[in-house]
Amino acid sequence: MREFDFATADTVRTALALAGTGSAFLAGGTTLVDLMKLDVLGPAHVIDINGLPLTGVTVADDGLHIGALSRMSDLATDHKVTAAFPMVAQALLASASPQLRNMASIGGNLLQRTRCDYFRDVASACNKRVPGSGCPAQTGVNRTHAILGTSTSCAATHASDVAVAFVALGASVRLRSRSGQRTVLLDDFYQLPGTTPDVENVLRPGELITEVVLPPLSWVRTSSYLKVRDRQAYDFALSSVALAVHRKGDTIADARIAVGGVGTKPWRLPAVEAALQGNPATEATYQAAAKNAVIGAIPLSENGFKVTLVQRAIVRALVELVGA
Amino acid sequence: MATQEPSSGLSRRHFFGGAAVVSAGIAIGAPPATAAAAVPGDTTIPVTLTVNGTTRTLRLDPRVTLLDALRDRLDLTGSKKGCDRGQCGACTVHVNGRRVLSCLTLAASAQGKQITTVEGLATGDRLNAVQRAFVDHDGMQCGFCTSGQVMSAVALIREGHARTDDEVREWMSGNICRCGAYTNIVAAVQQARTGGEAI
After folding, report:
1. B108 vs A98: CB contact, 8 Å cut-off?
2. From the list A1, A50, A97, which residue is nearest B109 (CB)?
3. Which domain range does residue A277 map to?
4. Which of A44, A156, A166, B148 could form a disulfide with A22 if both were Cys (CB 3.0 to 4.6 A apart)?
């Protein structure tokens, strides 16, 4: 691990004042410390923000406000989440391990690097780690890589589960810096790799996520998170589905859906939502709608199975949540 | 025939510790490595850790993880360094009552918090009920993952996540046992949970 200065901030103002070029905020550390040990990241200044008053969940007129330093395990069991946003709680409990969930913050979870094993291995080329060095995944080991939103520069997936649920719900993130505060839709916060996979989001140097806001939507009480993986615990998604459905009689009045494990960012599926709206709650509807999920998909040599898997996962999620 | 501890009462840990001292002593002529505080260029910082009820202040490089501070500076080698990447769970300790991975925790960020390691579970010579259950059910083979398994097991019983075998398997999933002692580990957890003793 490279040398760094360590500072602890007790207020947001102090944290922002300490931040600058080459600095990193330390929350749970489950991404940062891991990647620092691997020499993938080497901040010169580490600012411990665990003492900042950015924890807890509050209900307001514009929705549910989640403090960025809330831990995954706390959010997963908060009754305001489990009752009104079950897909969020389920996504959190399907993530990582109990120890990691006790450590990892919500803000840090959203900022975990979009990554693959080539990114983690400093002996490999990687356009994300060393811009311009190449992407071995294009022709190498790519079974777990993305099929949506990829480029010839990068095909790594964004591994967060809860971010998939947040994107499905139209969540926003509140960002603060020394120059002020702004709110960004999470779907817009994440960037596609294009020719600059080292840029994963619109966060500016020294900017801090202070909270996540979930807009109110009463029918999200009927929602779920389905995660398909190689082993049914402590593993990344091969395909996952965050789904909320508003059913009226035998018809699907409205739906929110996003998928994980297949995209270079959490992947909202407006075309699938549109294909469900106003149609009968039948498996035929679900199968027809799911085809829209993979429009534009570009499979690599080993991950073509995800084209089928993600459609089946969507159909299964719909059958389990809504019935057919 | 069972392997016995050396009759001198030396544990394996003391033996290796002594061996390290001897090999260091061979390097006569090397400049002595001193632990002088606050010399020019010293990048260490003071870190106060409360471990198993005892508070100590150490001078540490900010890069030192909680796991390395426990093992190398406080001689608490019960917490194991398995993968050192947050994947295996062998380093599991409790910080402010919650199970976390000490290999991904910077010691400096544990300042002022209550840390419990496997050495802090027993009361004198009386093992915690979870430790006893692991012995009763032979919940280990090589034993390298065991302290992490025990720390997770204690936490998941307190969390209320051990009501069924499936629940135990799911909530122990952050602790890998390469020997494959999982069946006996689940049995040990269930004995400890239903044994009527406070965990």
Report:
1. no
2. A50
3. 219-322
4. A44
